[in-house]
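Quick one: structure for this chain?
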Amino acid sequence: MIEQSPGNFYDLVRPDGVLLARYPAATAGFRQLSPKSGLRIAIGNGLTHGLYSASSEGDGIDRRIGFRKLPGYPLYVLAGTENAAIRAQWLSIISAHLIFGLPVTLLLFCTLWVALRRTQRLHDEAERREIAEDALRQAQRLEAIGQLTGGVAHDFNNLLMIVGGTVQRLRRHLSDNKESAGDKATQLLDTISTATQRGESLTRQLLAFSRRQMLQPCVIDLAERLPEIKDMLSRSLRGDIEIRVGVVRRPCLVKVDPSEFELALLNLAFNARDAMPSGGTLTLTAKPVVMRGKDSEEGLSGEFVAIRVADTGTGIPPDVLPRVFEPFFTTKEVGKGTGLGLSQVYGFARQSGGVATIATSARRGTAVTMFLPRTWETVTQPRQEQVAAAAARPAGTVLVVEDNAEVAAVGRAYFEQLGYQVSHAASAQAAIDMIEGSGEIDLVFSDILMPGGMNGLELADTLRRRFPQIAVLLTTGYSSSAQDAVRRGFDVLQKPYDIAALQRALRGERGAPGQQSPAPKQAAG
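Got it. Here's what it folds into:
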């Protein structure tokens, strides 16, 4: 009993290839396999069983054939099936699997695709969070350093005030007693004065970094100001450095302190100069941008003006790049940089409501970009104002309100040298009591930061309300209330000051804070 499925094939063959029986029946006249047939070749090789594929000699149909020799008989049994039947059966089986398996397979692939997408998003989110956390840690680090530097600035400026004031008093004493004055004493005073000015410059830049610097902002158009600054930079840099300025043809208005802005550009230019010892190109550009709150830009969003200062120098090594905005960090040799240039740039940008970023490449140089808030106010025109009518007089009665007796002595000496009659109060409440007991005070000159229940700004508000006829001039070495005082319309003189700066403040000339000392020309490196 043999299986008679479609495509099946059976043969009984002698070793010489003669067909004894066949199913299905062979074509007429076909009785023996040729010597080249697969079976006879296998028999010639001594095989008793095996598999092979061949086109049958009797009907020319492609089949897969198996053979075996009957034990004890010189006969071979062949069984096989057509290749077409095999393919048809395979297709029938696989079609049944595909009907159910293909949707499942597609669903599996879709699930894997969604999982991969979610995994990629998780990796991207983790990377973004890592970048944001690094930026936050760096910002917190800079903020901590800023609070530290700002916290010591007030006392340090008071010390500089005492030293500088004593130097000027000694100079006056020596000039009044020329017979006792000597070249050696004059040289020593010059040395002390120079050191004091350097200390003033350092504290000013530290205050700028800590965002405690007293700024006097006004509206400027960078499309007009940058070409003017180019001339200033040309005089400050070497002749082998080409300066290019690119600005848009529409207004780029920002509200900043002009002197601090120019100082920031100077610091960046000096850094670029040192990075291009063999010459190169310094490019300054300004254009309006819209920021989207990216982590790399400390989350700022809105309309800003991007001021980019780029050089073609040697670049900054990647391992020191995260620290370049820190105060006193420098890669320059001793004596060639204080490490405060870039910290001043960063502090100025942050205090102005923006941010400073840096990008560098060993082949393309370094580019620092300051993003400053864009404004639509009208450009501020240069003008001079008076503190009050009483302050415009060549002399009068002034009340110095200062808790530090030595600093008060310096201020008293300055006012007396200018021809004023001077009284002193150690606190705001003592000053009010003196004014109430004597109505002959023309000017109150008060420190902002004082111990007790009332500071200098609160004293100024009280005097404006109760004694509007008395002029008020405030001073501070460091105070978070200084900017608030300027916004309320009070003039503020920054410590340490000299007699010339005091005289300018009394005339109502609004110069930059620390105007009495030249702007420092050093960079961070």
